[in-house]
Design brief:
By secondary structure, the protein is an alpha/beta fold. It folds into two domains: 96 residues, Ubiquitin-like (UB roll), CATH 3.10.20.10; 144 residues, Cytidine Deaminase, domain 2 (3-Layer(aba) Sandwich). α1 crosses α4, α4 runs parallel beside α5 and α5 runs parallel beside α6. The longest helix is centred in the last third of the chain and has 14 residues.
Amino acid sequence: MGRVTQRRRVHKIVLDGSPQALQFPVRHREDVLAVEEPLEIRLGSLSFSVTMRTPGNDFDLVAGFLVSEGVIWTPEQLVSLRFCAGEDEDGVQTFNVVEAQLRPDVVRPDTGRNVFTSSSCGICGTDSIEAVRKSSHFSPAADPLTLPVETLASLPDRLREAQAVFDVTGGVHAAGLFRISDDGSAELLCLREDVGRHNAVDKVVGWALREGLLPLSGTVLQVSGRASFELVQKASLAGIPVLAAVSAPSSLAVELAEASGMTLAGFSRGTSLNVYAGHGRVSVPAAVG
């Protein structure tokens, strides 16, 4: 998997139940880790942000990040993406700097975030709370999508089955974009994995932008972790009507989903789920009895 994973020598300690704790066996072995490296995003020659991510699909990540920042929303606004020169101490190209060239009429942000963004935070570095809320060019509220609850509940397992990096590391988040057909079935369009859950979503949205698929009407974004405000915002800006998570949403995530006209589901575990906003999109079979 190249730079996505890295092998490291570890000491695995196994507790065998013996009361003599110092006598338990210690095994020497290799473990596979998910790689985490910084990525600097530049708009032209100016630094815009630095984020920690798992290398791979970096152009998708940058494109999705720009959508999430409200900078672009059509593929035509993104003229080009390229890796800039950058070398490690051994003179090897790091591929850790991406330069985005925007169409001349695209309004650049007044101030670059130009700060370190950790893999656990997608909105760190914004200048104010007001700057967190972005105005979407798409309206999830107008999306007529409905889907069977059985389909929605099946997506976490579908996502998990496709997580190749998680299989070997156990250390990455995933985001999967599913297209819902007229018969209620779901087709996996794109899956991305990353140490940062917001990066995984940005990679999916960036892929969709570069494929000319925005707005993503008729789709569900399934994520492997919790549903935070930032993930709801990213989905809304991409025109995604349904966001589902295997864990809990935050209060602000629910508020934004309601305000955006999105459907937000949490604790989706295959046999049950909670719908926190937009329950009208989820069709439930009539009770028998």
